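Re: iron/sulfur cluster structure - here you go.
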Amino acid sequence: MTWSSRHATWVPSINMGRCRSCGLCYFTCPTISRENEDVSWLRFLGPVNGSWLGYSTNKLIRWKAASGGVITSLLIMALKEKVIDGAVVVKMKTGVNPVPKAVIATTPSEIIEASTSKYCIVLLSANVQRSICLHLGLFCGGLPTYNGTLYLLTRLGVYGKAITDLTYRGGGWPGRLLIKTSDGVVIKSRYPQYWDNSFLYFVPKCCLTCMDVFNRDADVAVGDAWLPRIIETDSLGTSLIIARTERGKELVELARDKGYIHVEPISISEVMLSQLHKVLIAKEFRGEHHTAYTAVEVARIRVGRAIARMRVWPLLNIYNQFTTQLLKLARYMRKLIS
Ligand code: SF4
Ligand code: SF4
């Protein structure tokens, strides 16, 4: 992997001298559109060995997390039960231009410290990758390049300042962005607001066609429960949990039995419903047209990405304001129609 300052992210590079042209990378990549590829709902969902709605029974963990704090609690239990010796987690490195960094946590407090979302690719050495025995993965709606964070800092007037805390999500659900600077400035912004109107435009093209929304290769995949009944009632956070392997299922059930998490079964159709928007957008980017709403949304993202690529921040600000109003209107119309 090499850092591309043009794209503000890590990009893979192939050593052509060693490549055997086996095609494995091409055929396993979930972002490439291929002719006659199965893009059914079930292909998106991946294997399911159990699905639940749940949250950490520790209120502080739940409050600090991006959604229900389930991954944090599962990791703490796995550590205490000696299923793992340590967990690869991502922490924010503060300072001017704060960046996320992968670290190995060996205590519950280190795991808690690293909880909640980070929005940037981090690197892992091959040695660390080889020693991973359990994969707890997140649902993924796309990962913005680091330019997304830089744009956000600029828009909020703290670019170039020493940042002492940058928390992308947390503080209940769906959470908020929290930025603190060394000179005492504290900024808060609601999560859906800054994600939809900033980060989305910095998501690489490959993420927009990605079919790995539900993290198909994890032992346990976890994500936000974007379901009407949760959105209307929950301000603390609830996660959707999918166990894919037997090992993953045992871990969730052990955590439930030992009281680390509270879970209740949920149907596959509700799991799918929770990420319907992202799946529809990915299908639309793959050329499968669905509704007028998704077509407008895709057009909005395309134009926003073009402006973001030019780095004309004031124009992006104006575009943001305009599309925010447009989105509100579209949602209102959709509600009226349905
Ligand atoms: S997976 Fe196969 S095709 Fe891809 S880089 Fe490696 S050797 Fe080459
Ligand atoms: S959307 Fe897909 S390609 Fe993009 S970061 Fe997520 S899993 Fe990776």
